[in-house]
Amino acid sequence: ETYNTYYGTPADSKEVAKFQAKNISHICISNFKPCDENEWSRVDGSCNNLENPTHGMYHTPMWRMLPAYYSADYEPRKTKSGKDFPLARYLRLMLMKVGDSISEVFATSLSYFAEFAFGDVGSVHDIRLYLRTITHCCKPEGLTDKRCTPNFIPENDNVHRFSGIKCHNLTRPLSFQSTGCAPTNTVPERINFVTTFFDISNVYYHAAGSIEQNRAYEGGRLKVEVVNGGSFPSDANETTTCFLKDAVATDCARNVPNGLLGTNLFSTYFWRLHNYIADALVLLNPCWDDETVFNNAKDINIAWYKQVLMYEFYPLMLGRENMINNNIIGCDGDFRDPYDKNVDSNLAMEFAYALRWFHSTQDARQEMYDKNDKFINTQAVVNYSLRVQDLAFHDTLLQMTHGIYMQPAGGFDDTVHPDIADSGLGRLAKAFDILTADLARGRYFGLAPYMKYRDYCSDYTISHEKFEDLSYIMKPNKIDELKRVYENPEDIELMAGMWAEDIGENNPIPPTVACILSKQLQRSVASDRHWYERPNRPHAFTADQLQEVRKATLAGMLCAIGDEVSMIQPQAFLRISESNYKVSCDEIPTIDFTYWKDDSCDAY
Ligand code: HEM
Ligand SMILES: [Ca+2]
Fold this sequence. Notes:
CATH architecture of the domain at 93-123 and 198-419 and 510-604: Orthogonal Bundle
Distance between the termini: 40 Å
CATH topology of the domain at 93-123 and 198-419 and 510-604: Myeloperoxidase, subunit C
Number of helices: 21
CATH superfamily of the domain at 93-123 and 198-419 and 510-604: Haem peroxidase domain superfamily, animal type
Bound molecules: protoporphyrin IX containing FE, calcium ion
GO molecular function: heme binding; metal ion binding; peroxidase activity
InterPro entries: Haem_peroxidase_animal, Haem_peroxidase_sf, Haem_peroxidase_sf_animal
CATH class of the domain at 93-123 and 198-419 and 510-604: Mainly Alpha
Helix content: 25-40%
GO cellular component, one term: extracellular region
Organism: Manduca sexta
Number of strands: 17
Mean pLDDT: 94
Structural class: alpha+beta
Keywords: Glycoprotein, Heme, Iron, Metal-binding, Oxidoreductase, Peroxidase, Secreted, Signal
Radius of gyration: 24 Å
Shape: globular
């Protein structure tokens, strides 16, 4: 089938030719095999929704919880009184403090997993655009280039007033309109480069055609390269090896996932977990062919991940009861069928945006530990961006794996780690303030004013007009800080509001972040025909198998595939404590694969 990615409708050959002439058909057009309602989920996300087969597929548009706010020509909105907004960096300096605080509750594993789990449903492709393609936004020619949206540094900047750095390069978000897939007189919509289903696409489909290159076509496995006894994702064949030959290249073979550290860590883990599961299935079912093992291993791997995501990770952020009440998860562990074919599976702009709030939780110094969990040193996390290959050498993955459950996460508060605030791109840029970019992005995404999101999140039952209307959700000094930089309450921007909101023991993340995440998760679950808890999806689990999947945890995963992990705390997203102390891996529940035994193999 041939579909227009933007409209999600079939495309005829004339349309395809038009895009081909402009060399953009790989973005504007999707090709996929006709749908078969009984087949396994597809790695490219196509045919999940049988009536709208491109929904949730890679290269599809995002949706908006609230309508866009732009001024003329889709430039950022103006303040209520008609002015340009203050510089984003100025607002960041005024509203967020730089500091190295630590969480009393969470381990760094949580920040990395959050980032990885975002990368499964949304993409950070814009980074490459301003790092590789359009690097001149701070030079004179950038001033007149419509693709440029640099962040200028205020005169009296506390870090940069003498550093000579006056501007951080940044580009306008890539959209269907800027790419040429959709008319420029329509609201700019971002292109999501990954499947919006929770299906570990960062492993199974991180680039077009990657899965064919990454499968070993033997025993249902993914290709690996073994370095010092550890196995690493690879597209290695006889002629290309990634890790061994190319240890210093920035773009180590394009066919392994290469992203920020959290993505690199967890895609390596889930890559290994796939093979761990495949090996177990092969032992049990010697008569299965490669394809059968691959499909089952992938399905169990995805289920393991969904179980960790929805029953372990998100409850810590949103509260288990809230998630049950919002019909995101079930309460009794049984099958459940939340699927509704009328729910659109595209990802909300606001979801990808609200998750950026987690930047302030990232401790950008990772403590490294040896196999006995003895402290070694600390490493700058940002130095590992786009350097997946580094994990393979000098025991780096081993030491980090032990570090992510040993070390507390950054504080869930109003501070941001200095590296995130000033060296966010590590060695790839002289200086970069990720939080300034976060704030500025909201303007170019055309996000509605913060107050409108408060209306939305309170189901329009609370009025949000004056600054003081926020007192139920912010401390007086935070309201004062907002007043200091915004003239009118309607000017408050979404990220600024989220930074200012109360965080407490019962709400570790700001209420607006929680609201936006919940609304999206509800839809993510309801729109996924292949949701693992459904009794009636294609190749559904048996009741026994589902009960096994319920035992999946992060701790169990690290015991299964982590380098020399033999003791770990059962709740591995949480800090080690009196109620969550390290135990032997033998005591961590894990999936018993014998429930996948195929008796027909006995006939052989
Ligand atoms: C040291 C760790 C991290 C680094 C170096 C990092 C870096 C970045 C950078 C450079 C961007 C692009 C900014 C832009 O172009 O506007 C970005 C975007 C983003 N990051 Fe992070 N990040 C880190 C941790 C996290 C964590 C823990 C999360 C948790 C959810 C996260 C979620 C996101 C999201 C959702 C985006 C937006 C992507 C988009 O809409 O294009 N990041 N990050
Ligand atoms: Ca996905």
